[in-house]
Amino acid sequence: MTTTLQHAPTKAGGGLARRQNFLTALISGVVFAWLAWYIGRHTLDTTTRSFSDQVAVLTACGWTVGFWFGIGALNGPGRWLTGRDHTRADDLYYAGENQGRARYWKYCTDHKVVGVQYIIMTMVLLGTGGILAMAIRTQLLTPGNHFVDQQVYNGFIAVHGMLMILALIVAVAGPWANFVVPIMIGAHDMAFPRLNALSLWTLVAAAGLLLTTLAVGSLPVGWVVLAPISNQAGVGMDFFAMAIIVFTVSTTVAGINTIATVMTLRTKGMTLSRLPIFVWGSVIAAALGLYAFPYFLTVEAIQILDRTVSTSFFVATGGGAGWLQANLFWLMGHPEVYVILIPAVAALFEIAAVMSRKPVFSYRTAIAGMTGLAGLSILVWAHHMFTTGWAPTLGGPFMLTTELISIPTGLFFLVLLGTLWRGNIWMKLPTLWLFGFVFNFIIAGITGIYLSDIPIDNQLHGTMFVTAHFHYVFVGSVLFGAIAALAFWFPKVSGRYLDETQGKISFWLVFIGVQVTFLAMFTSGLRGMPRRYSSYSMIFEHTNFVTTMGAYMIMAGMLVLLGAVISSWRKGEPSGPNPWQANSLEWLVPTPPPLENFDVLPTIKEDPYNFGGKR
């Protein structure tokens, strides 16, 4: 007689998450937002001046919670509250095992999937902000243009500015601090995988709120949204403020996760003195963000209180002060520049070492430069207020700290040049964007020194000169660094090279477009053209026409780059696992990397910049 043993079928993992994705998140967010709006409309006192603002804030909260619920971010806490933790099958499902491309549209805990999701999100933010930039430049094509009115133009300025800031904050730190940093340090994953996924999808929710501001009414203010104008804005201001609060949650979670991962999950032998430069840059930027971004949350939370419950922190008629808001905003606003810049520079150190087959020139000086830059950035915020009349006796000290910040900036710039100097340069696509960064950053840095001087700043602060300067920092420098990083690590993500021909066409269109756009804008500023106006005097006609043509050229170059990314991902030239012959750990694992990166964790015996011979 034969006995057959019946094994109980293994229960599939995932539970509710199997039915949740980006589409369900959108539907759930809209439903929750409508419910919050409906409850607010029928329960709050309609006779108060702040009724509309209260309803708007409730609606924004409903959208955020609904989006989290629909994407699956609340599943883990919900299971824990009911006494049921995740099983191994649940963890594997959430990590996206055997789910193909579908995992990129879900709440996935695999750090590599989150990195790809950040790439997609960065492109969406840059694309949307770029469309608004084209609308702004079209309005400024000729004096007296009626493409949009001043009110709509103000809304375009506000949303364009903030979308681009959000995009560039995550352009390097989002994709690559997620995809490559855990592998670089020899870890299986991020320290908190669920929080890692939460940071990404919270950013998506924040972007949705920010775009809502255009739908519910323009903002009569630029992206700095300072009182007293911000106190007089419509409900678009509430959605704008809630977007910043939700975004701050995203960056805080991401920053804590990055620092915890590097500090606790390094493999054997991966001492701090052997960390790749990009890991150092990611940690320094994350720590600076943890200092800076809570100021942004605070200023927007107080703004909401003033608008919804009649406090008067920023309302002069109630005893408040616009100075308070300005100080809180710029306590975030200037360190935020270096939260954006440092990861891009750190990625360029990696590219320079590999593409010149040389160790990083003075590794410790590079780290000292980035650390000094982060430290001094905390002490320079008031140079944004030189022309406002606030605390004029502090102008001298803040001018000094602003000029001192050029020292650590010069240190890391010299390290970058020293790494390239007399190297066996491999002029591939990442190297091309690196040299573009070097050229543009010189212009950005020199013009910044002029603006740190109070007498000159008094003449130029409200002009297009300042706009040109910070666009050389963000577009000419950070964006070039981000694209260089994309071209460098693209083979590790996709197993294919980013198309060289399309990439070079994109580079030259964007590089030439940057020079045409912002050199002409410098000229407009030196001649006295004010910023944030939808029209201008005839004397600025020619320089604005040139600026707009250059902006169209930049947009054309970015569209070519988008085409290169899409076509290369689908059918680009196969690259193999280590096309650049690099030594850091992310290049020494298979492409695509396995779920947990390493079967056996490696042991590190030297730094990743020892190149024994020339190519």
Summarize the structure.
With 615 residues, the protein is mainly α. The protein folds into 2 domains: 17-79, no CATH class; 111-587, Cytochrome C Oxidase, Chain A. It is 65% helix and 0% strand.
Q: Which strand-content bin applies to the residues? A: under 5%
Number of helices: 21
In round numbers, the mean pLDDT is: 92
Helix content: 55-70%
Which helices and strands, and how do they pair?
Blueprint: H1 22-43, H2 51-71, H3 75-81, H4 88-94, H5 111-139, H6 150-171, H7 173-179, H8 181-184, H9 193-216, H10 229-232, H11 236-264, H12 277-308, H13 322-356, H14 363-377, H15 395-404, H16 406-420, H17 429-451, H18 454-460, H19 464-494, H20 500-526, H21 541-571
Helix pairs in contact: 1-2, 2-9, 2-11, 5-6, 5-7, 5-9, 5-21, 6-9, 6-13, 9-11, 11-12, 12-13, 12-14, 13-14, 13-16, 13-19, 14-16, 17-19, 17-20, 19-20, 20-21
